[in-house]
Amino acid sequence: MRLEMQKIGHSAKSVACTFEGVRLDGQVRRVAPKLFVLEGRLHGEVAVVCARSAQVFNKTMSQDLKLLLCDGMFDPKQGLEGLGVDALDTIECFDGIIDFEDILRSEVQSIQADYHYLDQV
Description:
The chain has one helix spanning 100-113; strands at residues 2-4, 13-19, 22-32, 35-49, 56-71, 90-93, 97-99. By secondary structure, the chain is mostly beta strands. It has one domain (2-45, 62-104).
């Protein structure tokens, strides 16, 4: 799912997409002329590799996601007070388009790159 930034206002717009068994359900809203907040929930099953045995297994996940999306280059000096988002949780989008499938793909790959243990499923 892709949205043009110019079509996103201050009222929340619902978004949903799926990638490799993980679903993102959430809302995106404009908080400044070039800043947007994505609040949502990731849930589903993701294939991960056990750090001990190298065995692939499915891990059930359900976690909240809150990201700051910026139209173009992000200036960390911009006021982020009251948004509840860390400057490190920022994704820069170019061409005036937010690609939610790309964001979800990146989040899933980040989860897969973490350490997982089969006995802690």
